[in-house]
Amino acid sequence: MKTTAAVLHELRLPRPYARSRPLRVAEVELAPPGPGEILVRVGAAGLCHSDLSVIDGTRPRPMPMVLGHEAAGVVEACGPGVETLSPGDHVVFAFVPSCGTCLPCAEGRPALCEPGAAANTAGTLLGGGRRWCEDAAPVNHHLGVSGFARHTVTSARSAVRIDASLPLDIAALFGCAVMTGVGAVVNTARVPPGASVAVFGLGGVGLACVLGAVASGANPVVVIDPLTEKRDLAVSLGATHAFEAGEGAVAAIRDATHGGAAFVFESVGSEAVLAQAYGATRRGGTTIATGLPHPSKMFSIPAVSLVGEERTVRGSYMGSAVPLRDLPRFVAMYQAGRLPVDRLLTHRLKLDEINEGFDLLADGAAVRQVVVF
Description:
By secondary structure, the protein is of the alpha/beta class. The chain has helices spanning 17-20, 49-55, 103-106, 114-122, 168-171, 177-189, 204-215, 228-236, 249-256, 271-279, 303-308, 323-335, 354-363; strands spanning 2-8, 23-30, 37-47, 65-66, 70-78, 90-93, 132-134, 137-141, 151-155, 159-161, 197-200, 221-224, 241-243, 261-266, 281-289, 312-315, 345-349, 368-372. The strands form 3 sheets. Strands 3, 5, 6, 9, 10, 17 and 18 form a 7-stranded mixed β-sheet that branches. Strands 13-12-11-14-15-16 form a 6-stranded parallel β-sheet, sandwiched between helices. The protein has a 5-stranded mixed beta barrel with strand order 1-2-7-8-4. The two termini are 17 Å apart.
């Protein structure tokens, strides 16, 4: 079938993207779903820093590629062997497909699925194939999703059925921002009620960390960001203290939490900010990294503090989530009023406005934007 998609052909085009147009909206060919795959009509897709890091070359991927990994839609057709989903199902995508048989999957850690990671790096679906084609040439998939398209084909293991009453523009946010941020709090850190929390960086993931911390009963909840508007939003979502990013941030957190927070989340993707987050963590506390720095960057800490202060540094990828378990329960928490995810949605865009949207994202002028089809 023919459909419309935003295709990235070249990395590292200069900003502003509204002028250089790295994403070209074009008519492309989409092959039918193969065994274990589904055809989905995309309802909405969010703009995330993981997409931006491909555009700016921070995280190179094979070109050309249909970007987009935070999305939701409606199943239109199923390939052979799909038994868990049916046409008409509303789904949210998970940006790591889970094979279900590798060692991490067997251990209940599908975010670390080995075949899923290999497929994502290669730009293929979980089964190794590509279903996109432009001008008779194959086009790569982004993290098994490629949500910046009116239709997409994915592995059935990249999709989770959700309550059909949830609006798709809100549902899309659960696929990355919510799953990563809330998941980091409840799965990776397992923050208990009354524990102190600090969050560096208030993009979609950082603010979702705030939502997760508030829902978990954490107190105090301290946030750090350079932008007043984002700090104010975090306070309206339940943060108890908000400080401007900079050299005084660590001291401010340590003062507000009487010696450092028990759990400190870094959601910027900066090794320098991660070092600050470690410095703001109390003795016996845990520093959790959810951002993805450039692969060449290194993180240095006083080694003796790991033993002498019983400190922990943890990575959290995709919120250490089990999507089949976590996405429905996070949606239920939203529907019960415990996770006001809709407050993170700041802009709705048309597909042909996507380059302008990535300018806003790069400038920090938006929390979560979604392309609505």
